[in-house]
Amino acid sequence: MRQAPYVIAVLLASACLFAGCEADQGIDPPSIHGAGPLPFPDPVPIPLSSDPIVGVGFLANGTACAVSRHALFLSADGGTSWSSSGHLPAGENIRVLALDGSGTIYLGADSLLDRLDPHEINPLSLDVLRSTDAGATWKIVSSFPRPIVNAMVLACNGAGDVIVGYHASGFALSHNKGESWTRVPGYWCSGAAASTSRVLFTSSAKGNVRRSDDRGATWSTCPGLPGEGLGSYGQIFTTSDADTIFVAELSEPGTIYRSTNGGWGWTPVWTGYGTNVSRSRRGILYFATADEVRRSTDGGTHWHLAGRSGDDITSLAVSDSGVVLVGTSVGTVIRWDGE
């Protein structure tokens, strides 16, 4: 689900390295926490596409998924070997991937493409596609008017809640896997999360994070973020019970904030660009920053270098068994045995 431009990521990462961020880093000095676990071995990139990989993830049965702009790839062995599903609807330009943990795949796409027949599909729409059979068949469950800003965020859970955000034009909610939607205009939605306990979160490019405990009927602004009304917040990660939340600040130099009380108070845990937070079943946390993967074994207080991809990381996921999967800007995926 990362929306920040690759150029910004590279510039911030370069500045971080110049400042000495090569060592373990967090808000506290790294000497407090020791050296941390050893980094992963050198990567073996697997080429899948000439387009960037916009999303990676794992289905409930362990099948790995990777999505480029125009194709879905599946791996039955957790990311070692891949094949193209070949069943996506024609003309869709995939922007984002979301998996609900129970086997349903959602794709966010915009249909404004160069094509021979301009009437093939609606050229002014943003679509949400759903598959319940590992990509064999698809249904377009929503088709929204194209927003002012060409960007999307997508989040879902196993209970049927789906959030699709489209920045300046607000967001929409579904509680039945996309069969019907409620639109929420007037909110610059740049991040979303849906916990399995059905607590929902959105973040805004206008500087706040909001929480809903009644499936989107009402929203409360989570206090304590220093950029409220000034900064810009993007990707959100929440645990299944919504007690621990991470949110990434999009402004330079950028900060990752953590809340351990459901969003009612925040602590900075990383200074510098970072996004795509993910967590294994054992509680090991990972996030991507430019061409690096960082890892935390203490709930996000300290972060250590886990591995380098060699190319800008566009997406990251970790399986229940601890396999770390990243997609890159050059259309490759990399698999590491984590933990």
The proportion of residues forming helix, as a percent range, comes to under 10%
Bulk shape: globular
Radius of gyration: 19 Å
Class derived from helix and strand content: mainly beta
If you had to describe this structure to a student in words, what would you say it looks like?
This protein has one helix at residues 6-18, and strands at residues 25-26, 46-47, 53-58, 64-68, 72-75, 83-84, 93-99, 105-110, 125-131, 139-145, 153-156, 162-165, 171-174, 182-184, 189-194, 200-204, 209-212, 220-221, 233-238, 245-249, 255-259, 267-271, 275-279, 285-289, 292-296, 302-308, 313-318, 323-328, 332-337. With 339 residues, the chain is mainly beta. It has a single domain (6-337), classed as YVTN repeat-like/Quinoprotein amine dehydrogenase (Methylamine Dehydrogenase, Chain H, 7 Propeller), CATH 2.130.10.10. The strands form 7 sheets. It has a 5-stranded antiparallel sheet with strand order 1-26-25-24-23, with no helix packed on it. Strands 2-29-28-27 form a 4-stranded antiparallel sheet, with no helix packed on it. A hairpin with a 5-residue loop joins β11 (153-156) and β12 (162-165). The relative contact order is 0.17. Mean pLDDT is 83; it is low at 1-33 and 113-121.
